[in-house]
TrEMBL record:
This is SDR family oxidoreductase. GO terms for molecular function: oxidoreductase activity. The keyword Oxidoreductase applies. Belongs to the short-chain dehydrogenases/reductases (SDR) family. Keywords: Oxidoreductase.
Length: 254
């Protein structure tokens, strides 16, 4: 069971989460709601997004969902406008959305390569660019970007994904320097293999489970809540002097 910390400074703060309808993003949205933050989340999955919004509002949470495909930057920025109009300027951005669709090296076309970057990297840049002035006006903020241990493990059959995910670390480091003067902190969270509903449904086999357990220093399933716990710490001023860093949550695999 993940231990739930309380961060009083998150109460009433506006946080935007991409890919918040499922998996790690969903766990992050729920964790932020439990801190009484005001949460806006963007996702391409309309039904799942609306269902989570309804579920959380029933508990009294101040949450709003906007449906958009983050590959369409104009649509993503318009979704931010809608959410900020409802929730106020964001002090926290969690660049979580991503997709680890498998692809054979030989089959990758220029269009497919660009599409994977449009899902896994490009929205991080343009959402940060959009939100940074508002965060600066608030006196500071926190941006958390999601990478993956897959590139560290030299994983095959997903080279466009691993390349984009390794770039997230360089992006994080430069962005921290760009925005530090405005007290905006930028950090990266790098999960190992996390047992989200999609991973359980599409990737989990007895062989892969055994291999992952062999690699992990701490045995057992890494849950979405374990990643959300690190994201919360980096969103809170509890980590006020952490910026430009990468925080790996992989039970000691890499
Ligand atoms: N689950 C893992 O094992 C794992 C490991 C390492 C890194 N990660 C990273 O963590 C992040 C979250 O992964 P997850 O496993 O929770 O994924 P997931 O597939 O369970 O959830 C991702 C969410 O993002 C949304 N999304 C995907 N493409 C989108 C788009 N174009 N526009 C808008 N929304 C979109 C999906 O609809 C979904 O709700 C990703 O960046 C992923 O690369 C996950």
């Amino acid at each position: 069971m993940t231990v739930e910390a309380t961060y009083p400074d998150l109460k009433g703060r506006t946080a935007l989460v991409t890919g918040g309808a499922d998996g790690i993003g969903r766990a992050t949205v729920i964790a932020l709601a439990r801190q009484s933050a005001r949460i806006g989340f963007i996702d391409i999955a309309a039904d799942a997004g609306r269902a989570l919004e309804t579920e959380l509002r029933a508990t009294g949470a101040d949450v709003a969902f906007a449906c958009a495909d983050l590959r369409d930057i104009e649509a993503a920025l318009a979704a931010v406008d809608v959410l900020e109009a409802r929730l106020g300027p964001a002090a926290i951005l969690v660049n979580n959305a991503g997709h680890d669709e498998r692809h054979a090296f030989a089959a990758v076309t220029p269009e497919y390569w660009d599409d994977r970057f449009a899902v896994n990297l490009r929205p991080m840049m343009f959402l940060a660019q959009k939100l940074a002035p508002g965060m600066a006006a608030l006196g500071g903020g926190a941006i958390v970007n999601l990478s993956s241990t897959s590139w560290m493990k030299r994983s095959a059959d997903l080279i466009a994904y691993t390349t984009a995910k390794s770039a997230v670390i360089g992006f994080t480091r430069s962005l921290a320097r760009e925005l530090g003067k405005d007290r905006i902190r930028v950090n990266c969270v790098t999960p190992g293999w996390v047992m989200t509903p999609r991973q359980r449904a599409e990737r989990l086999t007895p062989e892969r489970w055994a291999e992952a357990q062999e690699q992990q220093a701490i045995k057992g399933a890494i849950e979405p809540e374990d990643i959300a716990a690190m994201i919360l710490f980096l969103a809170s001023n509890a980590s006020r002097m952490c910026t430009g860093q990468n925080f790996i949550v992989d039970a000691g695999s890499v």
